[in-house]
Amino acid sequence: QGLFTYDPGFVSTAACESKITYIDGENGVLLHRGYPIEQLAESSDYLELCYLLVRGELPTEEQSNEYRQTVSQHTMVHDQMTHFFNGFRRDAHPMAIMCGVVGALSAFYHDKDFSDQEHRDIAMFRLVAKMPTVAAMCYKYTMGQPFVYPKNELNYAENFLHMMFSTPCGDYEINPVIAEAMDKIFMLHADHEQNASTSTVRLAGSTGANPFACMASGIAALWGPAHGGANEAVLTMLEEIGDIEHIDEFVAKAKDKEDPFRLMGFGHRVYKNFDPRAKVMRQTCDEVLEALGLENDPLLKIAKRLEQIALEDEYFIKRKLYPNVDFYSGIILRAIGIPVSMFTVIFAMSRTIGWFAHWNEMVSEDYRIGRPRQLYTGYTKRDYPTK
Ligand code: CMC
Fold it and tell me: What is the mean pLDDT of residues 251-259?
């Protein structure tokens, strides 16, 4: 069968070198370009993190202002894109719309020469600036509401909330606690080294494909409930549990090996200790719920109790299954008033910069087309039956 290493799920195969993000799963460490996520979440913001992930260093004040200014100049999408949206059914999942629309950006912003860093930079600005616009348009379209244009005097998170919630009848009133929490959600999802979607983007990019099309491949990979779709699945699960009294029943189902059900928002392939993003998210969650007076929200009570039970249960302790980032982000997003179907869309718009940073890192150096091998387990050669 040749000299291949058989590694289903890529548990022990490094497919690339990277300088962007470091994870130590045993010790719950996540560093972006060397900076701990906790410090970045405390003192930085999403746009600065975007700069850091791609460029490798924190910006000076002047570089930061220039970066923000350029992003704000690219927030509009081509007007023809509205026709593209109109082709979708109104009840389509916003992730399905996003996947198609982001892929279509490759037709609107095609560039033959991505070997040049300047051209790649333009793609980066377009992606960072347009993803919130596209995400909000996905939501507005499914709601049957008119699209809301970006307001470039607002900051990144505020602008997203404005495009999501303002209507021709009135502008959304920005609550700074919510805008800050939104920015934190963007930051905590920005990059996570070679996860399924980032690896997909690298693989697609390794063929020389257009970067916008590569981002669409990342969106497709992110959609599943084992990856980015988990935040949506957490809320669906909490609603299904419905009452604290039913938690034991769901925990028993999760432990039953005959039952495919898993506790959504628990466990991680790499973190075998607490997910450091979950720690920050948990605190943000408490702040948002307090600011909105939602501490007694019944779903939140179920979530807190579930967290407590799972953290004390031998099954979860033995397998090192802790609440992950999606467990808390779903609760925050719900409190902000974001519909569940938009949760993964928000993850995708936040992660786009991570996907871009990895694509950019790969194409800036010598790279080969990604081509995994297989262990063939089918028939050996056999003859087609003669009549
Ligand atoms: N509930 C119950 N049991 C679980 C869970 C769970 N959420 N997660 C893992 N297990 C068990 C699993 O059944 C297995 O048990 P055993 O050893 O007895 O067979 C053991 O834990 C190891 O699981 P695994 O499937 O080998 O672990 P993995 O690294 O392949 O999967 C995971 C990681 C995140 C896909 C998985 O933990 C899971 O499905 N979690 C729920 C979905 C979720 O929250 N996903 C979001 C991940 S974080 C955001 C992101 O990076 O996208």
Answer: 95
φ, ψ for residue 34, nearest 5 deg: 95, -15
Do residues 6 and 375 touch, judged by C-beta distance below 8 A?
Answer: yes
DSSP 58: P
> What confidence score (pLDDT) does residue 254 get?
95
Ligand 1 midpoint to CA 378 (Å): 29
Query: What distance in Å separates the CA atoms of residue 89 and residue 290, rounded to the nearest whole number?
Result: 38
Under DSSP, the state recorded for 87 is T
Q: Which residues does 152 contact at the CB level (< 8 Å), separation at least 6?
A: 72, 73, 75, 159
Tell whether ligand 1 has an atom less than 6 A from the beta carbon of residue 269. yes
| CA nearest ligand 1 atom 29, residue | 269
Whole-number Å distance between alpha carbons of 316 and 325: 17
pLDDT at residue 17 in the model: 96
Query: Within the chain, what is the greatest distance between any pair of CA atoms?
Result: 78
For this complex, say whether ipTM is above 0.90: yes
Contact present, 181 and 287 (Cβ < 8 Å): yes
Task: Take residue 55 and report the two structure tokens written for it.
Answer: 């460029």
Helices (H), ranges, the chain: 37-43, 46-55, 61-73, 81-86, 94-108, 117-143, 156-165, 176-188, 196-205, 211-222, 230-241, 247-255, 276-291, 298-312, 314-318, 325-336, 343-364
Q: Residue 319: CB within 6 Å of ligand 1? A: yes
Torsion of CA 294, 298, 304, 310, to 10 degrees: -160
Does the predicted TM-score (pTM) go above 0.80? yes
Asked if residue 111 has pLDDT above 90, the reply is no
